[in-house]
Amino acid sequence: MNYLHHLECTSCGATYTPGTLHTVCSTCGKVLYPRYDLDRAKSEMTRDTISGRVPSMWRYHELMPVVDPANIVTLGEGMTPLLPIPRVAKRLGLRRVYVKDEGLNPTGSFKARGLSAAVSKAKELGAAAAALPSAGNAAAAAAAYCARAEMDCYIVMPVDAPDACKAECDVYGSHTYLIRGLINDAGKIIREGSQQRGWFDMSTLKEPYRVEGKKTLGYELAEQLGWTLPDVIVYPTGGGTGIVGMWKAFAEMQALGWIGARRPRMVIVQAAGCAPMIRAHKAGQNHADAWENAQTIAAGLRVPLAIGDYLILQAVRDSGGDAYAVTDEQIVADMRELAQADGLFACPEGAATYSALKAMVWEKKIAPDERVVLFNTGAGLKYVDQLKPELPIVDAVHQIAAMRGP
Predict the structure, then answer these.
(1) CB 108 within 8 A of CB 132
(2) CATH number assigned to the domain comprising residue 301
(3) Residue 235 forms beta bridges with which residues?
(4) Which structural domain, as residue segments, surrounds residue 292?
C-alpha cells in the first residue's frame, strides 16, 4: 500500500506525475514536493498501524515515495534516540530539554535519511548514476546508499571537507572529486556534469525525494513524544531540508488526524561566518542573498545560498520561531560542554543548537517548563580533525603524582 499521488511545485503550484525522474519545477525552477492521497490514508491508516514495526524511518512506508518495497535501499536509518540532557537543562533553568541524536544513523549523520529515500526512488525510476555536491556528510551517505543500490555515484566537495567524509567516499567506491571552493562551486560542476553525462542530480532540494527522508524526523519526534510535539525545535540549518521536511510532516500528520494544529516554534541556527538565512529573517525577506566569503568549522552550515530559502523562512515565521548565528568559538566550547555535562559528543552543527538555546535563555525567550528539542545532526567523532587536544604525556610511574584529579 502506498499513497503517493503527484508532485507539486512549492512556489507556482504546477503538478507532475511521480512516475518519471524530476529535479525542480520546469515552470519556475523551484522545489517540488511529493503529495499523497491523505484522505484515503486517513480512512485506511491509524497511528496504531505503524506501532510494532521495524524501528527505522521506513516504518512510515505508505507515506514515503517508493511504491514497490523491493526498491527500498536501507541500512537501518531512522528511529534515532530522543535523549534527555538533564544536567544541561538544570544549568539553564529548564526542566525538559532533549537531543534528537542523528549521529547514530548509518554513515554517522542525518543525511542517511534523505539519501536513503532519494536513492531508493531513483532506483525505482531507473536512474543509472547519481551525483551531488556536498560539504561532507551528504557525500558519505550518498556513496554508501549508491553502493548498496549498485548505482554509480559522482561527488564533488570542498577540499577542506571533513577527512572522515572524504575517507568514507573513497571506501564506498564513489567517483569523488575535491574543489578549492564551497559547496555552491561544487554544485556548478555537478549541474554541468549532469547535463553532459546524464547523471541524476541529487543536490539538496533539487530533486523531490531527499526531503521525504528528512520529514521522518517529524514523524518520529511526534511518535516518541506520544503523538504530541515539543514547544520549541532548535535546528542547525545549511540547506534546510530537515526543517522544511519536519514542517511538511506536521501538516501531513494533522491531515491524517494524528496530531492537532499546534506547532513548535522553529528556531534555525547558522554559523556567524555563514548566516544568510539569519540575515534574511531579520530583514523580513522571503529569499536570502548569497553569503560572501563563507567561513566556519561547521561544514554543514557553510552553505552560502539555499534553493529552499523561502520554505525555511516561511516555517520559521509561520511558527513564531526565531533565528540565531553563533561563532565558531561558541561551537567548540559547547561541543565540550555538552560532552562533559551529559556525555553527548555532538558534531559542530549540533553543538550550535546548544549555543543558540543558551542565547534564548539569556533573552528570556524560553519558559522553564517548555519542552525543547535540539537536533544533533551528526556524530562528533567525524570531526576530530577540527579538535586538536593538547594532552600531557606520562612516561614514568613516579609521575602519577602530577596527574590532576582525586
Answers:
(1) no
(2) 3.40.50.1100
(3) 268
(4) 82-106+209-386
Residue (of 179, 131, 180) closest to 151 by Cα position: 131
169 three-class SS:
helix
DSSP count for the chain of H helices, then E strands: 13, 13
260, part of any domain = yes
Residue 224 lies in a domain: yes
The residues, any chain, with a CB within 8 Å of residue 403's CB and separated by 6 or more, are: 394
Q: How far is CA 331 from each of CA 271, 275, 277, 326, 347, rounded to the nearest angstrom?
A: 9, 14, 18, 7, 9
Residue ranges in the chain whose pLDDT is less than 70: 396-406
How many domains in the chain?
1
Q: Which pLDDT score, from 0 to 100, does residue 168 have?
A: 96
8 A C-beta contact, residue 207 and residue 213? no
Give a yes or no: residue 228 inside a domain: yes
Helical spans, DSSP H, in 127-233? 137-149, 163-172, 183-197, 210-224
Q: State which H helix or E strand residue 115 sits in.
A: helix 111-124
Predicted pLDDT of residue 398: 59
Q: How far apart are CA 406 and CA 403, in angstroms?
A: 9
CB 19 within 8 A of CB 234: no
- What type of residue sits at position 312? I
- Let me know: does 126 contact 221? Beta carbons within 8 Å: no
Domain-embedded: residue 248: yes
**pLDDT number for residue 403:** 61
Residues 6 or more apart whose CB falls under 8 angstroms from that of 164 comprise 108, 136, 140, 381, 382, 383, 384, 385
Residue 348 Cα distances to 108, 318, 360, 380, angstroms:
13, 27, 19, 7
The pLDDT, as a whole number, for residue 254 is 98
Least Cα distance to 297 among 388, 360, 210 occurs for: 388
Output b/e per residue, 174-202; b: 16+ Cβ within 10 A. bbbeebebbbbebbebbbebbeeeebbbb
Distance CA 38, CA 25 (A): 23
Calpha distance 136→252 (Å, rounded): 30
